[in-house]
Amino acid sequence: MSLKLDNFLGPRQPVIFHLTVTGRCQARCEGCINALSFGRREDFADSWECVPERDARALCELLKKTDGRPAVVAFYGGEPLLAAEKMEAVRVRLRALLNGRPLRFMLYTNGELLSRTLKRHPDLLRDLWLISVSIDGSEGKHERFRRGTSLSRIRENLAALKETMGTPVLMWSTLRDEASLRDCLEEFLRLKARGLCDYFFWHLIETDRPISSFEAFCRRYLSDLAFLLETYLSWLSSGRILPVLPLNELFFFLLSGIRRGHTGCGVERAENFDLQGGRLLPCADLGEEFVLGEIKPSGEIAWCGNPARLSSLVSYRRDLGCEECPAEFYCGGRCPVLIKNSPERARQYCLLTRDLVNLAREALSEVRRLLKKTGLSPENLYLPYGYLTLFTDVIP
């Protein structure tokens, strides 16, 4: 009998609140999720500006209802560091309002402004529990997909950050149709060797079109997954855990009989919320269809939506045949954002997820053998590695 992830985590199950600090961004990334959900940035950016006093009080109200579970406030955007002073104001205000109650902060960033923030707001960066930096492979690939950013500058910024403080850094790669997982992994390994990144996460982009050359993409992706597993086993044979978050989570699930029991982000559970422009949302990337509350200038939340409606977000599971899928224990159902924008692409991703799970199953006996040989347990794969997928996005 399988054990649901919630039951395994128990009181360690975190509560996550994403705060959109600003809608502004200096980059022009191909396939920007904000543009997909909301249209032109100039049409929404101004309305997403954080009001620190209001938003800190709203967060405080939400945090009081978490029953003592670990809580994380994640700064989101746009590019949050364009409004670092607002992040700092929220952080300071929340620390005062919560009067010593444990709370962690994390940041999603493109990494361009880390050095500037280090000079202007060192206490802010020092108080971050985790920084997620978007890097989509080596220089040529990254700068093609994330126009307006410079990978060499991001590396310099990470070096300055790590020289000053030990804040863990997660390299987050978004795979577009022309991208290579292997290229992203190899860039991570270079950064890891220099002590600039600690963890690696990848996912496949959400967009409104299917993969046009799916068979060719599938061949490349399977080859890259084979390289990933070869690297993983090589590390494990020497007693090291390759800090690739989704793969460690998958192996832990297989070894421990764990099933996720919900979508990767768990949006349908109405436990984690996004604050964006004075509104409370179940997911900022879904658009404006599901507003759960309006945040008054005082910070009081006027609830206006029914969280029970969110169960309808995963009604597509019947159409996808999730209950019969051999990867359902890991996947839990595709991302509602992707289903909304391209059901056909979602079905393609279902096939790729099954491929990932099948390859992991084939390697499972060797993983089990190497864990025993090196004195590691399956739980060593999950804490801290697989656990950190809770603070990412969706499964690959």
The level 1 CATH classification is Alpha Beta
The Rg value, from CA coordinates, equals: 20 Å
Low-confidence stretches: none
Strand content: 5-15%
> The CATH topology, please?
TIM Barrel
Cofactor: [4Fe-4S] cluster
Keywords: Iron, Iron-sulfur, Metal-binding, S-adenosyl-L-methionine
Protein name: Radical SAM protein
Pfam families: Radical_SAM (PF04055)
Quick structural summary:
This protein is an alpha/beta fold and 396 residues long. Helices cover 44% and strands 15% of the residues. Keywords: Iron, Iron-sulfur, Metal-binding, S-adenosyl-L-methionine.
Describe it for me?
With 396 residues, the chain is an alpha/beta fold. The protein has one domain (11-391): Alpha-Beta Barrel (TIM Barrel), CATH 3.20.20. Helix content is 44%, strand content 15%. The chain has 17 helices and 14 strands. The strands form three sheets. It has a ten-stranded mixed beta sheet with strand order 9-8-6-5-4-2-11-12-13-14. The chain has a two-stranded parallel ribbon with strand order 1-10. Strand 11 and strand 12 (279-281) form a beta hairpin. Helix 4 (52-63) packs across helix 5 and helix 11 (214-237) runs parallel beside helix 16 (343-374). The chain is globular. The two termini are 25 Å apart. The relative contact order is 0.13. Its cofactor is [4Fe-4S] cluster. Residues 20-164 form the Radical SAM core domain. Pfam families: Radical_SAM. This is Radical SAM protein. InterPro entries: Aldolase_TIM (IPR013785), rSAM (IPR007197), rSAM_sf (IPR058240), Sulphatase_maturase_rSAM (IPR023867).
